[in-house]
Amino acid sequence: MRFETPRFKQAAVVALHDERLRTALARSRVGFIGHREAAVEALPEFEQLRDTAAQIKDHVLDHLDYYLQRYEQAVVAAGGKVHWAHSDEEAQRIIVDICRAADAKVITKGKSMVSEEIGLNDALIAAGYEVVETDLGEYIIQLAKEPPSHIVGPALHKTREQVTALFAEHHGRARKETVAELVTEAREMLRDKFFRADVGITGGNFLIAETGTSVIVTNEGNGDLTQTLPRVHIVTSGIERVLPSLDDLPVFLRLLARSATGQDTETYTTLSTGPRRAGDPDGPEEYHVVLVDNGRSQMLGSRFRKMLRCIRCGACMNHCPVYGSVGGHAYGWVYPGPMGAVLTPIYQGLKDSYDLPNACTLNGRCQSVCPVKIPLPEMLRELRHLQHVERMGPRLQRHALAVWRFVASQPWLYRIAEKLATTTLARLGGPKRRVHKLPFAEGWTQSRDLPAPAGSTFLSQVPRSKRA
Ligand code: SF4
């Protein structure tokens, strides 16, 4: 996937003027937010589960080397093989080699954000394979030649009308107007691919160290067909997705579905341990797990370590006003929304991702819905701080902050400046008390007025006797 985050501002402006995108975003957000709220309300222990999940994740991160080794031993004992990929290129090479050794022609894929992160499809297609996405959303964007715009609903930016046109163009069949007809048509197109596939690639929502099991949750059952029908099954996963034992799994399953889609549970939860055993009715002959680091070890030793708790549920973006206004593509890389605004600068560099942490309104909604309690606003502030220390911001902004810092550290000067600002703004606001154009910050008043202050400062309204 191309990295286009440096164009975030331009892409955001385009997105804001895209009426179809706004319709699609508004529709999906109502569902995501409303369903999650209802599901959480119906589960009194939800908050307790969030605490437990965060504790389990922190425990795993504290002992990641131990649990990864244990996981590898269990996979090998079950007849599978674990491959360690330090970088995206290494992961691509390993997977292409496995496909080559299997003499593969057709590869089916379940939804996997790690495979997007490592640019797997492009590598496989360049190596000559036919690659077919089998998750409906991923299938749609594969036809449209677009990247995903949401980590749970990759084609969330598309309206039904757009999908109708896309299917008619690519399938050469009569136009289907209803969602049910579109889903049936996609199923019919995919069925043959499932049967012809030599290799099936899935992600791994969770990896169980105790048993060497990979766990996927889906709503369409495509993951099951992807991993059981072909001769070879490859799991791609980040190293942070490991859990100690099967006993820990229900905590995360209960949180994931409710946070992601507002369901009590996903339709399919599938656990795979090694290749087909003697007597098994189906399953792959080979079972490979590609564990991708790609910067995660570095994150583990950094102040952004808690980001590795992420279970990729998408709740933070569903509740983010910035994501809700511009959609996922504007973010310019695999991970959009608040989690992307943290991950992209870490993976791709602070400078090229400068706008992402700064686009945040710091309203804190993302943290309040995150099932593993990642302090996203704190991290975004930290990224801003690092950018400031590295002198990456616009010069005018840096100077303005330096002046602000000086004024704010001198109470007498601060009071004078505050008085001056409130009086000036009150005058600018006129009798209607609305400022139409803010000097030096026109961006703020470009599309709405600023309510003018009363003309007196907050401090001056508090009686002297009541001040601390
Ligand atoms: S940061 Fe939290 S809310 Fe966002 S995708 Fe990750 S787990 Fe879900």
Helical residues, percent: 40-55%
Which superfamily, in CATH terms, is the homologous superfamily of one domain? NagB/RpiA/CoA transferase-like
CATH topology of one domain: Rossmann fold
What oligomerization state is this entry in?
A: single chain
How many helices does DSSP assign?
A: 23
Residue ranges: pLDDT <50 for 5 or more in a row?
none
In round numbers, the mean pLDDT is 94
Specify the overall morphology. Answer: globular
How many extended strands?
12
Largest sheet features: 6 strands, parallel
First-to-last CA distance = 55 Å
Secondary structure category: alpha/beta
Over all CA atoms, what is the radius of gyration? 25 Å
Strand content: 5-15%
The top level CATH class name of one domain: Alpha Beta
Which molecules are bound besides the chains? iron/sulfur cluster
Order of strands side by side in the largest beta sheet? 1-10-7-4-2-3
CATH architecture field of one domain: 3-Layer(aba) Sandwich
Task: Write up this protein.
By secondary structure, the protein is of the alpha/beta class. Among the domains are: 43-297, NagB/RpiA/CoA transferase-like (Rossmann fold, 3-Layer(aba) Sandwich); 409-466, no CATH class. It has 23 helices and 12 strands. The protein has a 6-stranded parallel β-sheet, with helices on both faces. Strands 8-5-6-9 form a 4-stranded mixed β-sheet. The model has no long low-confidence stretch (mean pLDDT 94). Iron/sulfur cluster (SF4) is lined by residues 310-316, 339, 370-372, 374. Residues 310-316, 339, 370-372, 374 line the site of iron/sulfur cluster.
